[in-house]
Amino acid sequence: MAGGDKTAIVTGGASGIGMAISMRLAADGAAVAVFDMNGAGAQETAAKIRAAGGQASGFAVDVSARPEVDAAVAEAESRLGVPTILVNNAGAVGFDSFLDITRADWDRMIAVNMTGTFNCCQAVIPLMLGQGWGRIVNISSSSTHSGTRRQAHYVASKSGVNGLTKCLALEFGPNGITVNAIPPGFVDTPGLRKADSDGSLSIDKALATTPVGRPGRPEDIAATCAFLVSDEASYITGQIIGVNGGRNT
Description:
Rossmann fold, globular, alpha/beta, about 50% helix, about 15% strand, about 250 residues
């Protein structure tokens, strides 16, 4: 659905949801710039896309560092074409009791999850304006609906992403740019498995409260993202579209 003449940037594309989105958009015909702090991982995802017949390049990028974002966006444009699809998936996560959250913990969470989204949007939207067409999908979190114990910094940062989504949708809708958010819930990723193994959360307890009776797959998020960046979704903007198996509605 992404279209063979379009270029997409996917942040946090080295693994999990970001990798699934990168692979799906490439399968749908987009050239994909894979951004990730793990540069080797980004290049591995890009290599998988190329091996499957797609077009992709990997870039080592810390989205909280604006100079890195600007440089990578310029290089992606040079290699792959003008980016008109942006998926802000890169994110930091943490489990800390509120009184134990340090200022450094707080600042890093905001810097990656919220400021990183701001940086990428501000770097790419001018290119979208030049094309008269754009699609932005911000990956937030289902925890923004209900809150989560021991994740005040994370939930606050992702709630900011939802708010930014609505503001950008209002501002740039007249320019052919749609902006939506997907707050995933309980998706089987390496991060989820790690949180389960260290006791930060329980997969079994989450499964018991999931109406569809299974964890989400990264491909579930990717499928929704693929629709939102398509021409068919041109009348959908400013929306927070949960993909969560019914856990948070």
